[in-house]
Design a protein that fits this description.
Length: 325
Amino acid sequence: MRAAVYQRTGPAHEVLEVRDLPEPEPGPGEVRVRLAFAAVNPTDWRARTGVPGRPMPFPIQTPGQDGAGVIDAVAPDVDHGRVGESVWVYHAAWERPTGTAAQSVVVPSVQAVPVPDGVPLEQAAALGIPFMTAHRCLFADGPVHDRNVLVAGGGGAVGHAAIQLAKRGGAKVIATVSTPEKAALAETAGADVVANYREPRAAERIRDAAPTGVDRILELALTTNLELDLATIAHGGTIMTYSPERPDPGLPVVRLMREGLRLTFMLIYTTPPEALQAAVDEITAALAEGALRPLPATAFALDEIATAHEASEQGLVGKVLVDTR
């Protein structure tokens, strides 16, 4: 098979290459997926750029956590009836050297989720990290029915997913964005109110929509948005942070205490298995209902993997996919 790999961390065009590798064979509890599409997420290029002082966990790495395709082989202890099943894949490269930027990938059977009839593989490939992150952020503290939810970055992949899942859960959703193009994406996803966080009246616009404050905030840029969050959150509300930002924020501890706020953090890879399964179940149910809209996608060929990584790294609006066929 052909697969993208890197053997050292660094800029995309300096370290990424496409090679011919032996096709992997599923081990105990695993399935092999012949991939049609892989998604590019920020976690992919952050891993590729590396953390100073931290060595690569494997001598050679194929990037890509998310993808979709068809199961073409299973381990002896896995139901052979899964062969031929269309699936979406998540966490493919988490603590493993084999990611989805390849023609085939082997993953634990539970991480190959059946795709409901009629859902395109392009849409299914982009589900994993964004939708599972959004689900955990939204529902870690329980249902959101009749709650006011503020989604930072409503035009991004996680934000776009969060708007849809929150609306399905019965919440009133307010989204913040930085451009008219992203505002249109948030509105299409179903946001009740969209505010440009760069405008002077952003906090006032959010407060007009939620006079008693927002109950939950999904935050991707805590340092940048902390003041806006504190100006709009309800007493006893929760800010859930799912993405790192540098520098780390300075926290006004007394103010947080006085307002009874909860500031929580999550990493999708270390989310408890039961929460991951709850996310998988809800996402699949929403797909089957036709309740989820994909972001507009730009697809690159596997040979263009470096360009795909750079597009994501530079903030291309919409979803970056890699056509692995």
